[in-house]
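Structure ticket #2291
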Amino acid sequence: MHLEVQEGIVALGLLLAVATLLAIAPALRIPYPILLVLGGLAIGVVPGMPEFELEPELVFFGVLPPLLYSAAFFTSLRDLRASARPIGLLAVGLVIVTTVGVAIVAHTFIDGLPWSAAFVLGAIVSPTDPLAATSIARRLGVPRKLVTIVEGESLVNDGTGLVLYRVAVAAVLTGSFSAFYTSGLFLVSVGGGIAVGLGVGWLVRQIRRRLDNPPAEITISLLTGYVAFIPAELMGVSAVLAAVTAGIYLGWHTPELTSAQVRLQGRAVWEIVQYLLNALLFVLIGLQLPVVVDALGGFSATSLLGYAALVSGTVIALRFVWVFAVLHAPKWIARRMSNWRGAVFLSWAGMRGAVSLAAALALPLETDAGTPFPDRDLILFLTFSVILATLVGQGLTLPYVIRVLGLEEDGIEDREDAKARIHAAEAALVRLEELVSEDWVRDDTAERVRGAYRFRTSRYRARFDDEDDGAIESRSQDYQRLRRELLDAERRALVELRRSGVISNDVWLRVGRDLDLEDERLDI
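Resolution: structure written out below.
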């Protein structure tokens, strides 16, 4: 009974720690993955923490599919196509270079580390995590094309890196390696994974377009990553690419599959799921870290720190070398990385995070021969060291790098936003003129709506007029300020009705949601 109480207290403390980290991240203006890394590290050294053994399959099959699927789902296919060349050079070329380079350095300088384990380590630390880098970049106004490259690279190199990871792990488990066989396996794995992802995406699309049930649709969305991942894994092809491909496919077709309600609720659900999965990963590594460090008793603290610095430095240096090599390559190779400032940003934004951590935690405990997986604890320790050096070290210094480089927002997104709103308003005006002859469209209503849409188009067109004096924007801001004050008054009245028992909680939630949606439309 005493043990159960202790475990309950530990579990409650972990939940409170995660919630606290996520809550204070915005106030500190630090991306939450960085705080989760530090928090996980702190949790691991808290006295009295129980030893924790994690089943590798739980991480690989439980955590990776939704993380990969959601990242792909919310990625812009248009931006991926536009930046396909630099993304491909980073997501394929750099991943291979990093895997091989880290393997050579680790095998050469780490005593007793076999080639097989060294290649596994290289594959694990080769994929990047864009979450911290892109959140900082957007806040500081980095040009969108650079942010797109970082996001696209991370999406594609998850597939490349984890395909190499599975090949390397398979070589360790079986104890054999053939370059010819491995090359064929790589190609089959990639092609098969993409095929499975497209097939699952098409099937889910046919199902969802026939549904009109938000909870069921969101549940299917949450399960789609698993539906693509598990069959691909059973078939021996890339489960990672299957989940990513299904995500990209369904993300592109989502307008025809979802209603406004599903999109609003689904986005909120996915944001929470991503938060929780990332938090889970870093808490798990925090709980396992003491066990890992204890298992490395044969190494001195100085040796471990030296190995960590060596591998982390290799990962960072290889990225700089590759990016600048591509920058000075012929223009047909590197058209999109045309200045050294962008190259420095891309080099410094190569942080490692959740995917590398999940891959390391998912390493099997034993080989097919029943022997312990070679240097598993050392690989896990070095992976966390690389995450700590890149995500925390580079992540915390990235704002200063951006300011020193003088990178400025290119305004592309704001212009596209204005164009979209103008086009949508003009389409509404055209449709209004088609409907004015209908009996149910009153003249005064039509004129009021017509005036609102004309004002909207005038407001956004002014953003393309260099001689605009800002008067129309000022009028809009004043109106929105008034509208928000009135919405706040409506909310207070609703709360009072709920408190006095005049309306039920369901009515309060439904009407309050409508007010919140109106509030979200305001851009002040």
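Closing remark: The CA atoms of residues 94 and 428 lie 47 Å apart.
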